[in-house]
Amino acid sequence: MALLRMATALLLAGLITAHTAYAQVTLNFVNADIDQVAKAIGAATGKTIIVDP
Questions:
Q1: Distance, CA of 44 to CA of 22 (rounded, Å)
Q2: How far apart are CA 15 and CA 19, in angstroms?
Q3: What's the N-to-C CA distance of the chain in angstroms?
Q4: Of these four, 24, 27, 36, 37, which has the most CB atoms within 10 Å of its CB?
Q5: Residues 1-49: tens digit of each pLDDT
Q6: Burial 11-46 (b: 16+ CB within 10 A, else e)
Q7: In whole angstroms, what separates CA 39 from the centre of its chain?
Q8: Phi and psi at residue 9, to the nearest 5°
Q9: What are the domain boundaries of the chain?
Q10: What is the pTM of this model?
């Protein structure tokens, strides 16, 4: 019984992770500063974006 619960929990965790891995983001910047755009994209992707002045 414990093995079945563990297998079910792992299956559900995998499904949740797979669903969020392909989440889409729509950006709509009108007359935005490039620094604001870089920060928003960095926050959405989890990456650091450095803008060269």
A1: 12
A2: 6
A3: 61
A4: 37
A5: 667 777 777 666 665 655 555 667 777 888 888 888 888 888 888 889 8
A6: eeeeeeeeeeeeeeeeeeeeeeeeeeeeeeeeeeee
A7: 14
A8: -65, -45
A9: 25-53
A10: 0.50
